[in-house]
Design goal:
Blueprint lengths: L12 E2 L2 H10 L8 E5 L5 H7 L6 E6 L2 H10 L7 E3 L7 H5 L5 E5 L5 H10 L6 E7 H8 L9 H7 L2 E9 L4 E2 L6 E8 L9 H13 L5 H4 L1 H4 L18 H13 L3
Parallel strand pairs: 2-3, 2-5, 3-4, 5-6
Antiparallel strand pairs: 1-8, 6-9, 7-9
């Protein structure tokens, strides 16, 4: 039995075992986290190397594809009781995984990879590490430092809580079927920032609003918050892609101080 990749699920199965091993070896058990939830395992090419890891990982897998689930149940006895047929984006992860830390890994379906990151962000205090493969441009964007046009909402929000490393690029031909784009593997490890020193909801609103008007300066982006007040600050003359996380925090604090 084999599983056919399904276009509507964004499936591209890895067929190069050297690449699978390299991705598995990128996982680093940050904060000694041994419990790993792999999203979209397909036929378990990456899973096998996670199971063989000398650190003795507790590997769980989740897939929405019934055919993949059946394949894994028949061919991966080491996963007995740890195979979950579900949509990751719709799962109550706290209920599913309990209150213990767990990492999220995988060759993520490109069509939902950004949503996966936002879901992990919601669970950031329980997810010490995220390691996976994305469309290369998305991986670049997540890891992008301040000062480039590729930097965006996802860059700032993920970097507020995670240290991010772009690990390596993966070519198209190692997949079945091959995608039309190159892929990139990144590793995100939870930083020491438990909470932000500002209103976190407002921080997110300001980041999103700033990048939604990225051709304008910050002064224009925050107009609705300060409602005609005259505020002077060097950050207000900048565009969002040049601001660091710390500067967005400072900007949020500035807005907080001037809210009605």
């Amino acid at each position: 039995m084999s599983v056919k990749a399904k276009k509507h699920l964004g499936q591209h199965f890895l067929k190069d075992m050297n690449v699978c091993k390299r991705i598995a070896n990128t996982y680093g058990s940050h904060r000694e986290c041994k419990k790993v939830l792999e999203i979209g395992p397909g036929m378990g090419a990456l899973t096998d190397f996670l199971l063989e890891d000398e650190m003795g990982l507790d590997v769980w897998v989740m897939d929405i594809d019934t055919e993949s689930i059946e394949y894994l149940q028949e061919n991966k006895p080491a996963l007995d009781g740890k195979i979950i047929e579900a949509d990751f984006l719709k799962q109550d992860l706290a209920k599913l995984m309990g209150d213990e830390p767990f990492a999220v890994v995988g060759n993520f379906p490109y069509n939902i990879s950004t949503q996966i990151m936002f879901k992990c962000l919601e669970m950031r205090n329980q997810v010490p590490e995220i390691m996976g493969m994305f469309q290369r441009e998305v991986a670049w964007r997540i890891a992008e430092p301040p000062g480039t046009k590729q930097r965006g909402i996802l860059s700032v929000l993920m970097q507020a809580y995670y240290d991010i490393e772009y690990c390596f690029t993966v070519d198209e031909h190692v997949f079945d079927p091959p995608p039309k784009v190159k892929s990139g593997v990144i590793r995100l490890t939870r930083n020491d920032r438990e909470t932000l020193p500002c209103d976190e909801k407002l921080f997110k609103q300001i980041v999103k609003m700033s990048f939604n008007q990225r051709r304008k300066t910050i002064r224009n982006s925050i107009k609705q918050f300060i409602k005609g007040k005259s505020i002077e600050h060097e950050l207000l003359s900048l565009r969002p892609e040049v601001l660091s996380v710390e500067q967005f925090i400072e900007l949020t604090q500035l807005v907080e101080a001037n809210l009605d």
